[in-house]
Specification:
This protein is an alpha/beta fold. It has seven helices and five strands; from the N terminus they run E-H-H-E-H-E-H-E-H-E-H-H. It has a single domain, classed as 3-Layer(aba) Sandwich (Rossmann fold), CATH 3.40.50.1970. Helix 6 runs antiparallel to helix 7.
């Protein structure tokens, strides 16, 4: 896997809801891998994909899920690279159930959350670039370009 950023969605319907973030990934010409796998419906497929991530050269994962939001914690349990959980709106109280699920991951599982919804996905992209820019100037330049869009 040559892509440094992996984006995992729990449902194919989530891609349209996160369109603004995917547009940013394209505008910045960031190589990323997108996978749609449900932690609840396809746990074995997700487990295998996580093992591939761990060995494939990716350096950060953005895992987006709504409702019970098991996806980010599931992924973080299998990989030893940063995982950013994005809670999606829906479920109870506009996505708070998903957010609580992500931030309530048991100790020993490194997982952060950038919040709820499409702005949280954009912030997860920014955080991914911050991580990648620690070792690669190209990502630092893309990070500055993206942050300047929001000034």
């Amino acid at each position: 896997m040559k892509e440094k950023i992996v984006v995992i969605l729990g449902s194919k319907n989530d891609k349209e809801r996160l369109k603004d973030g995917f547009d940013i990934l394209k505008q910045l010409k960031l190589d990323y891998k997108l996978e749609v796998i449900s932690a609840h419906r396809q746990p074995e497929e997700l487990r295998k994909f996580c093992l591939d991530i761990a060995e494939g050269g990716a350096q950060v994962v953005i895992a987006c899920a709504g409702m019970a939001a098991a996806l980010p914690g599931f992924v973080a349990a299998y990989v030893d690279i940063p995982v950013i959980g994005v809670a999606l709106e829906g479920g109870l109280v506009g996505g708070l159930d998903a957010l609580f699920s992500i931030v309530s991951t048991p100790k020993g599982i490194g997982l952060v959350s950038s919040g709820v919804g499409k702005s949280a996905f954009i912030n997860a992209i920014i955080f991914s670039l911050e991580i990648l820019s620690l070792k690669d100037k190209e990502y630092k330049d893309k990070l500055k370009e993206l942050k300047n869009k929001f000034k």
